[in-house]
Amino acid sequence: MRLLLVEDNQELSRWLCAVLQEEAFQVDCVHDAEMANALLAGEHYDAVLLDLKLPNASGQSVLRRLRRQQNQTPVMVLTASDSLDMKVECLETGADDYMVKPFEVRELVARIKALIRRHSGSATPTLGCADLNYDTNTRQFQLSGRPLTLPPREHSLLEALLLNQGKTMSKASLMQSVFGLGAEASEDALEIYVHRLRRKLESSQAAIVTLRGLGYLLTPRQAS
């Protein structure tokens, strides 16, 4: 699961990044609205954690721009303001959740996972495609009821496909999910990981389908 953290307090952002990475999230962190807008225009994220008080432009402006562009990435506002008016304004602008600082890390992590699940169309912690299941709480896969243990990049790839099940994911989006911001990667490297995953899913009813010129799709095998 890939997150964008937009927080101008660098000490807080370093701590949050470390905490979230310990929970197996992949986190990119920026400290101002301009950089947030640039990344959101070109990168794929499963959720955005957005502070409201930023240098030069507010977090609300980032949120408004995102929604004007019809970008439906889930947004959780993280702010020191407990104003009801501010909360209502953010939710009406398009925020999906709102947490007031200081907060408990366990609650933050649980609400991030719930936010991503809802965006994926699931009301429960378990996501599934045919006989492939994924527990978003434990971050574990099961295939036909048995644990499916994967190396980190294959895990990130299958997680991204399952979170976006039924949607075509471009190679660019998948590369961002697998390799992260600034990592040196190529489409050839991505194709190697796709090939390895396909071999591990040979006995599964879930299949990774290639849509030429578009990307990849995870779908039940009989529908492929």
UniProtKB/TrEMBL annotation:
User: What is this protein's record name?
Assistant: DNA-binding response regulator
Q: List 4-aspartylphosphate occurrences by residue.
A: 51
Q: Which organism is it from?
A: Candidimonas nitroreducens
Q: Gene3D superfamilies of this UniProt entry?
A: 3.40.50.2300, 6.10.250.690, Winged helix-like DNA-binding domain superfamily/Winged helix DNA-binding domain
SUPFAM superfamilies registered for this protein in UniProt:
CheY-like
Which ranges of the sequence are annotated as binding DNA? 124-220
PANTHER family in the record? REGULATOR OF RPOS, TRANSCRIPTIONAL REGULATORY PROTEIN TCTD
Key words, A-Z: DNA-binding, Phosphoprotein, Transcription, Transcription regulation, Two-component regulatory system
Q: Where is the OmpR/PhoB-type domain?
A: 124-220
